[in-house]
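User: Thanks for the earlier help. One more: Antitermination regulator. Can you show the sequence and predicted structure together?

Assistant: Of course, both are below.
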Amino acid sequence: MNRPLDSVPAGGSAAPAAVQVVPQRDGSVRDPGLSRLAATVERLREELAQAHSDAAGRSLIELAVGMLVERLQCGPTEASVQLASLSEQAGVPVLDFAADLLNQAASDRISAVARTFVASSADGTDPVALRLRTAQAHAIAAPDTEAAARSMLEHALRPLGAGAVAIWAAHPDQSLSLRGSAGFGPAEAQRWRHVPPGVFTPARHALDQRATAAIPELAGASLPSIGQHEFTGGRLAVPAGLGGRLIGVLEICWHDALPEQTRPLQRQVEALAELAAATLETWTDDEADAGAADTEFDALRRLTAGVLDPCLILCLAPDSTEVPLEFVVRDVNPAFVDFAGRPTNTVLGARLLEAYPLAAEPGGLAVKVEHVYATGEPFRTQRMRLAAMVDGVPLHTHGQVSISRHGHHVLVIWRLEDGTTPVARLLQHAQRLGRIGGFEENLRDRHIAWNDTLFELYGLPPTAQPIPLEHLGEHAHPDDRDTIDRFLRTLLHHQRPASTAFRLQRPDGVTRHIRVVAEPVHDPDRGVRIVRGAYQDVSAQHWTEVALAATRDQLAHSEQQAAERSRLTLQLQHAIMPPTRGPLDLPDLHVAVRYRPAEKDHLVGGDWYDALTLPSGNVLLCVGDVAGHGIDAATGMVALRNALRGLAATGAGPAQLLSWLNSVTHHLTDNVTATAVCGLYEPATRRLRWARAGHPPPVLLRKGRAETLPQIGGILLGALDHADYEEHETQLDVGDTLVMFTDGLIERRDQSVHASLETLVALTEKASRPAQSAHAALDATLDHLLRYSPADTDDDTCLIGICVDEGPTGEAE
């Protein structure tokens, strides 16, 4: 009868248990107890592997079921039944069918590999795509990156002949950390847990080149790496990234030479690298790093608490992932005093370059901090330039600086060259330049303190006795003594802050205009013990105000003249082109006009138009724009418009009219340039002859489709003594609409003229109203163009719409 070894008969002692020795074939003996224990361990290991395999298989099948739920719009139970039925019809296992289904639906690297490998290999192994999907499922179900690395090696890399794999995480300081590995011994993995910056490994080479590093034999490459003594054969280091961002490296090791880098092998390795990147994104050591950082931070705080020099404890900013790195002031020691004179709370918690933006200058504090953090090498100097910006004023000082790295933190210690902070020196300079003198008067012991500037304001030597407030009236102009009395009554009797201005009469006979500001300092019993304040010499300001008062009338007169000039210019423009004008009915044409002046009255422009019947029966249609604004532009507009009217009576064509008008502009006006479009419409043939001088071409709207007329040649008016212009002919039909405009309708600061014309064409098509009458549609089109104009230059705009009617309706201007 067998019984447990630890059972003891009642009332007796345990007898030595007999040990049965089992002879082996080789003559050795084996302990049956150890054999049973080894068998139990092996069985548990197989059960654990099977559990992992089952979990990975379930993950793969659940992904396929989820895809069927989305595609078939059914519930999970029905989708599971459908998956089993489809795999049975296909004659393949459910796991294989689920992997194939995912490969067909997905657009990742594994599905790309699946499209290449559509069948099993010649020796009967599983398809590549199924192995990759299995590795992916195991990685998803893995509890950490280490388990994910083992899964990749077992299911995807051993069939490729690989013996080990390492997953490296890349850090902003150019260092690497081993997040997961398989195939190496525990001691080797621990030894390569962290690779500092500057160590050129295959993984670092892949990151620097942002491409796969293929090493035929590691033994001859002189590159240190994990497992370099055991795996001396080929190596592949593949950058691992997500969304265009590299976050690590997948390193694969072979005992023998590197296999041939075929395209299918490369695609498998790229798919595994993408899986490694997803694993790094999911399983990180941030919590452990945070715990270590907190321990380091507490130790640094205790260390710096006893340092008598100012200390800053910096840490990497949370969102700092690229060079240059950004640091945050995590803490300061009790002895910290900002050399720029700011309160500590304005520096604590701020980014280093926000608190000290001038530290980014070449060789500055920020550059040294980044170097120390990246290399770990301490930095010390006997003299460094420290700079800060306070309210837009740059402040500089020099001091001894020491910078050192402590784990995840950087410690900065400085000692200024002198005890006077730059802010104190800045205040002294500001008082001197602003002629401000400060004082403090003790009303009980009559002790008075003045600074040097105040002695200068009073015209007294520095050895003279300061003057008490109660004697201030004796040194003021007699007419200002009542003002001084009110000031002292408010300050000393009502015990409130007070200020006033008076004329100070100095002993040397000079009178200065002074402004004094003072406030009482209350005791706990609400009595006034001390008065503090400042005097400022405002003589220059006073005489400036006198000079300003003398010119105010002249300024008002000039403003009145400018307003009158602008009013006359506006009246002149409105006399020629009123902002609103009723429609014109010309032979075969219906003309409507819209004019939008500039938003600012002083920007009265030179836009003009004209539409009238000539003695020949033809209709003159023109629009133009004189460069500039104001009275000169308005008078130039009147001259050109009237000149064109007179020239058109000769019966000449549009090109000849513009050539003559160019000569008029060049010779008869004072430095005026302009653009224009001139057209002659023949009612009998509905033919339009037109020419342009540097002006945007008209837009033709026909049957709901809009287009610009050709960009024929023609220089702007007034630029040259003589210029020739091209003439173009356009045949119009009944119902056509012609839109002529000035550049104020289309000009944009961020677009070319060509792009603005395309926008206007599209806007014209949207504005067409086929269901309305021709006249109503024309008015609606012009209103729409003016309302939704994309222009942003605040220029005046002239817009003319010409609609071709069925027959002549009379002659009118």
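User: Great, one quick takeaway?

Assistant: The CA atoms of residues 336 and 545 lie 46 Å apart.
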